Amino acid sequence: MTISKRLSLATLVLITAGAVILLYMALQIAYGAPAFSYGPGSYLPPLGVGLLTAMGIVVLQRRGARKSIDKICRQIATMADNREAGMVMLGDTDELAEIAPPLNRFIAMVSEQNAELQADNRELRIEARIAAAEKHHTEAIIFSISDAVIVTNRFDELTLANEAAEKLFGFKLDSALRKNIDRICSDGAFVRLVREIRNHARSRTRKIVEHVMEYKGEPRTFRITLSCVDSGGEQVAGVVAVLHDVTREKEIARMKTDFVSNVSHELKTPLASIKAYVEMLVDGEAEDETTRGEFYEIISSETDRLHRLIENILNISRIEAGVVKVVREPLDLTGVVKQAVDVAAPQAKAKGLDFVSQLVPVYYQVEADRDMIYQAVLNLISNAIKYTRNGGRVTVSVAVDERRRVVICEVSDTGMGIPADALPYIFDKFYRVKQNQEIAKGTGLGLTLVKHIVETVHDGELSVRSEEGKGSTFSFELPVIQ
Predict the structure, then answer these.
(1) Phi, psi at residue 364, to the nearest 5°?
(2) What is the arithmetic mean of pLDDT over 257-273?
(3) Where are the domains of the chain?
(4) Could you tell me if 378 and 344 are in contact, meaning their C-beta atoms sit under 8 angstroms apart?
(5) Residue 443 near residue 382 (C-beta atoms within 8 A)
(6) Which residue did the predictor score with more confidence, 126 or 362?
């Protein structure tokens, strides 16, 4: 029986109770009793019968409704446990059978919306995983870059940086994240560059500037590439700054420029002399044989100088390019040094020098290219003779350090010496000590070539000790053959 039918029955019972009361009153009047002559209590019996009947029906209805509710709850709980939507099943005799259809429609609607939400949730999870993977990929790329990389947001707060940036600016990424860039970077000019491009640029703007910054107590030149992060609108979402250290590149470019300039100058000097004396010979200015002989000697000397310069340049270039042909063989360093001493002896005698060689027999051998080692030794001896005044002393020695397993060749002189401020540069190409340029001519390539031969080709070590006005000592050591 439906709820409406139950309520209609209750209403009928109440009407019946009312009719019983009216019938009771009519009988009272029919038997001569005046209407309403009795007190209110006279109506209680019929009224009580009607009310008790109605209450009984209501109680029965509530019990039936409770059973229907329990059944609905059990079915909904089963759906929840199984995580599957279903239908509420009520029989025709259930008190709440009428609410089953709308309840099922509501459950179906909720299930459909839940399916849509689950689909959206899956898509969001997939997008989140893709975004996380892309973030990790981007971080891996940035962290693998050797240049310093700084990424800021629209509030100039640090959002990402690599290890090179941490070293350059002296911060730790974990503690510097979400901090304003002016709190982690002490270089005000760099901070202004980041803020200017964010404030005045549009998306996809790119700017490249060169800026000198202090790094480890030394000025370093950086090429800074600043790029705006596109937010999909007019406003810039942030800035990416890549700092590439170009100090070495600029130094190499300067060295190349200086090299070309020095080579041009060094080539020009002997060529100018040769050309001048040739022109004088052509013009007949050398009338006697003695004058012509002097001119020929100068031309020959300048030609030899030009030849040595070109050979040194070529040898240095080959060594630096790694294309020089090296013939390594076991050799006795004492024998090579003795050969160079014998060749340089006439030059030392001509200047009246005390030329001493301490070439004790050495039973250890080194693995080296004989011609290159000979050239290095001869260059050192020639320099010592050239920069020692007449009557001075030049000493050449060879010794072995058995503890370190090296053979040491040393060339000492009592010449002009080298100023302390010039010592760091004496092995640079074309460098010559200004105070010594008046004593002897040179190209400034001899010591550069010696350094390349000893250290680059033979993995040895070249060093110098010098005191201005007292002389210099050049020495190199090579590892002995095990």
Answers:
(1) -100, 145
(2) 74
(3) 1-144, 146-245, 251-320, 325-479
(4) yes
(5) no
(6) 126
Query: Nearest Cα to 385, choosing from 298, 269, 472?
Result: 472
Burial code of 266-302, b = ≥16 C-beta within 10 A, e = fewer? beebbeebbeebeeeeeeeebeeeeeeeebeeebeeb
3-state helix, strand, coil in the chain (%, to 5): 55, 20, 25
Residue 272 CA to residue 286 CA, distance in Å, equals: 18
CATH architecture assigned to 251-320: Orthogonal Bundle (1.10)
pLDDT at 272 over 80: yes
Euclidean distance between CA atoms 1 and 365, whole angstroms: 120
Domain 325-479 of CATH type 3.30.565.10: yes
- The more confident residue out of 68 and 359 is 359
* Tokens coding 422: 């010039």
CA distance 44 to 67: 34
Per-residue pLDDT reduced to its tens digit, 338-388: 988 988 888 888 888 988 888 877 677 889 888 889 889 988 998 899 888
Helix axes 333-350, 370-386, angle to 10 degrees: 30
Q: Supply the pLDDT for residue 478.
A: 92
Token pair 């971080």 is at which residue? 139
What are phi and psi for residue 412, nearest 5 degrees?
-115, 150
> What token pair was written down for 260?
């070309």
148-176 pLDDT, tens digit per residue, is: 899 998 888 988 888 888 888 888 888 88
CATH of the domain spanning 146-245: 3.30.450.20
